[in-house]
Amino acid sequence: MHAAVATLGALAAFFALAGALGVWLMRDVYQKLHYLTLPCSISVWFLCAAMFVGEKQKQAGVKVVLISLVLFFMNAVVTQATARAAWVRKDGRWPPQKAPPPAPPEAAE
Amino acid sequence: MSAWLAGALALCAGLAPCAAVALRAQDVMERVVALEMASVLVTLALVMLAEAMQRTLFLDLALTQALLSFGGGLVFARFLERWV
After folding, report:
1. HSE toward the beta carbon, residue B44, CA cutoff 13 A
2. pLDDT in tens, B7-52
3. In chain A, N or C: fewer CB atoms in 10 Å?
4. Hey, are the CB atoms on A77 and B33 less than 8 Å from each other?
5. Angle CA(B8)–CA(B3)–CA(B57) in degrees, nearest 5?
6. Where are the domains of chain B?
7. Do B18 and A88 touch (CB under 8 A)?
């Protein structure tokens, strides 16, 4: 029981740390945004599993599930809003416009 | 040291890369991403600390942090998109 809780907690911490390192190492904002997914979509469920395995009180488990759901759904909304803000700051308009098709080559004389 | 406390300390160590990005990045949107990652890490660390100290009441702090970071992230994104 104790080993299972420690393993699940270690996995949660590992994925969260990997996300933090991804935010640090990636080059631009769009690449960094991908790494928010690791703690919000993977670590939280490992943490939930660890709580349900190791915790006797149901109230604590329900609260952790609530926190996990908030983080899980919050991540999608905040990531989309941040990516849109980054695009609008760079390009000045939303939604992104399609690039015009390339001009046809001149007919050979 | 319990496993929960070790996990909380590991998550707090994850704040260092976020702080480095938030302090040194050239683009302000990269700093916002680092701030969002830091808020998620703090939320998870609060959950682990609550379990390490056997105080389930502290889980309310983590829930409040998660909800406030959600609103804060949206406000930062919209504010930087329109006015800054």
Report:
1. 41
2. 999 999 999 999 999 999 999 999 999 999 999 999 999 999 999 9
3. C
4. no
5. 60
6. 3-82
7. no
Q: What is the ipTM of this complex?
A: 0.90
- CA of B30: which chain A residue's CA is closest? A29
A55 Cβ neighbours under 8 A, 6+ residues apart: A61, B51
Q: What is the pTM of this model?
A: 0.90
Write down the domain spans for chain A. 2-91
Q: Tens digit of pLDDT for each residue in A20-51?
A: 999 999 999 999 999 999 999 999 999 999 99
Contact B70 A5 (CB under 8 A): no
Contact A86 B29 (CB under 8 A): yes
